[in-house]
Write a structure and sequence with these properties.
Layout (H helix, E strand, L loop, with lengths): L27 E3 L1 H7 L2 H15 L3 E2 L4 E4 L5 E9 L6 E9 L11 E9 L5 E6 H20 L6 E5 L4 H12 L5 E5 L3 H13 L7 E4 L3 H5 L4 E4 L18 E4 L12 H6 E5 L4 H4 L1 H8 L10 E2 H6 L11 E5 L4 H17 L1
Parallel strand pairs: 1-7, 8-9, 8-11, 9-10, 11-12, 12-15, 13-14, 13-15
Antiparallel strand pairs: 2-4, 3-4, 4-5, 5-6, 6-7
GO molecular function, one term: oxidoreductase activity
GO biological process, one term: carboxylic acid metabolic process
Protein name: Delta(1)-pyrroline-2-carboxylate reductase
Length: about 350
């Protein structure tokens, strides 16, 4: 797989000895700037596609631990480790969630990823997991759209204009190069306009137009791919508005009270998930199960089954597909592996 190049790290980033002898291994700190120079959405999508079928059986990933550190704030721990020398790592993502930070003009989520050797237990690296999560989450959606979106998809509707939105746009453009138009909606119209302008000025998107629109119901029906990254607790995407052949990508919800689409979208679509945790965490699916809209048995499969061909993705140009992701420590450790090994190789 091609690796992205990275600028030479500073002395305090580069390990003093990259010998495989565990006694001399020195931990590295990979800056956010280095991480951004190493990762591209295309290389990470390719890495997930080639690695997930192989590593899924050898990775242990307990359910994430969530601790309330105050009435509104949380600490989350997401560990994962390999049982095979072919992937000699233990990894853990440490996340703090402080939603009140908006009043301080600070992000609500901060995270760090620490990678250890699974043979010696030594610390190998630490890196910005906030940025890592933006890449891995968006690339999971991009990979899913390779199997579930129409091969000739032309229009992407982006619902939400937060930190995840530009990553999702880039991931879908990487996975579906036929896309020619991106329409962005956000509750705050100015944020959607600003993102459209920023994406227009970005390099690497020749032939793609970016625009914003303040009426979601007006534009949902235009989307060959509709990607959602919001914290909404009321359905934003109405299933009756989706066009025939649309692919709906749901990223935002991660607890029972959150939902980005209504029951009709779930009823109309063939539903796939990134992993089985989505069946017990995602508000859209839980509500649909409870109301008898669909059964758990109706879910078409998980992402790795699409990759291996065990489950068939899109069957024809007219069907509606839905992909719901909630994230997992498996893709965290794979993304960290790619960053770490590429960093050492430069």
């Amino acid at each position: 797989m091609p690796m992205a190049s990275s600028p030479n790290p500073t002395n305090n980033e580069r390990p003093s000895n990259t010998n495989t002898d565990p006694i001399t291994t020195t931990p590295v700190f990979i800056t956010t700037e280095s991480l951004r120079s190493i990762l591209t959405h295309q290389t990470l999508i390719d890495h997930f596609q080639s690695s997930l079928p192989t590593v899924s059986p050898i990775l242990q990933s307990p359910i994430r631990q969530n601790y309330a550190v105050s009435p509104s704030s949380s600490l989350l721990l997401m560990p994962s480790w390999s049982t095979s020398p072919s992937l000699p790592y233990i990894g853990i993502k440490l996340v703090t969630y402080f939603p009140q930070n908006s009043s301080l003009n600070l992000p609500g989520v901060h995270a760090n990823y620490v990678l250890f050797s699974s043979t010696s237990g030594q610390t190998l690296a630490s890196m910005d997991a906030t940025e890592l999560t933006l890449y891995r989450t968006s690339c999971v959606s991009g990979l899913a759209s390779k199997y579930l979106a129409k091969i000739d998809s032309q229009v992407l509707v982006m619902v939400g204009a937060g930190a995840m939105a530009p990553h999702l746009i880039k991931a879908h453009l990487s996975a579906r190069p036929s896309l020619r138009k991106v329409i962005i909606w956000n509750r705050t119209e100015e944020k959607a306009r600003n993102l459209a302008e920023k994406m227009t000025e970005s390099d690497g998107f020749q032939g793609v137009s970016f625009e914003s629109n303040g009426c979601l119901e007006e534009i949902v029906g235009l989307g060959d791919i509709v990607s959602c990254a919001t914290n909404s607790e009321t359905p934003l995407v109405k299933g009756e508005k989706l066009k025939a052949g649309a692919h709906l990508d749901l990223v935002g919800s991660f607890k029972h009270s959150m939902k980005e689409c209504d029951d009709e979208a779930i009823r109309r679509g063939r539903v796939f998930v990134d992993n089985e945790a989505a069946l017990v965490e995602a508000g859209e699916l839980l509500g649909a199960f409870q109301r008898g809209v669909i059964r758990k048995d109706d879910v078409g499969g998980i992402l790795v089954q699409l990759i291996t061909g065990e489950k068939v993705g899109r069957c024809n140009a007219e069907e509606v597909t839905v992909f719901k992701s909630v994230g997992s420590a498996v893709v965290d450790i794979l993304a960290a592996q790619l960053v770490y090994e590429t960093f050492l190789g430069n």
